[in-house]
Amino acid sequence: MKVVTLTGEQLDGVHIVRAFPFTAADGPVAVVDSYGNEIIWIHDLSLLSLEQQQVIKRLLETEEFLPRIDSIESVSRGTPYRWNVVTDRGDTFFEQATSDGVAWHTDGSVTITDCDGICYLIPTVQHLDRRSRRLLERHS
Fold first, then answer.
1. How many CB atoms lie within 10 A of CB 122?
2. Mean pLDDT in the chain?
3. Are 138 and 75 in contact (CB under 8 A)?
4. Dist CA 98 CA 105 (whole Å)
5. Which are the contacts of 9, defined by CB distance < 8 A and separation ≥ 6?
6. Residue 25 — φ and ψ, nearest 5°?
7. Which tens digits make up the pLDDT trace of 30-54?
8. How many C-beta atoms lie closer than 10 Å to residue 69's C-beta?
């Protein structure tokens, strides 16, 4: 992505990142350069125009690699735990060595980290179907 500063300087290779993706997903964002240096800090997206907010949200969706879990089909009872899930990127499975890879957050979201360090996001547990919630609760 290219950004033009107020002074007219053109910056290539910039990215938008959430400051606190798990604890304040709707909170501040930063525009960073290709080295990870902060260029702009946006404390509150609601202070921007609706068009600017939409552009930033679209960019965040393409930048983030957190697959979102839409439903949990099954979880094995023995270790390593084998999760069969449906994500926003399709059906998949992953393994988890211990149940401590499931993190419940105060905003009602859950993250599950697999054996390879990939983190899966459940944005709102209450939006899962009953069966998925029951399978997830076994790992709380």
1. 26
2. 84
3. yes
4. 18
5. none
6. -60, -30
7. 888 877 788 888 888 888 899 988 8
8. 22
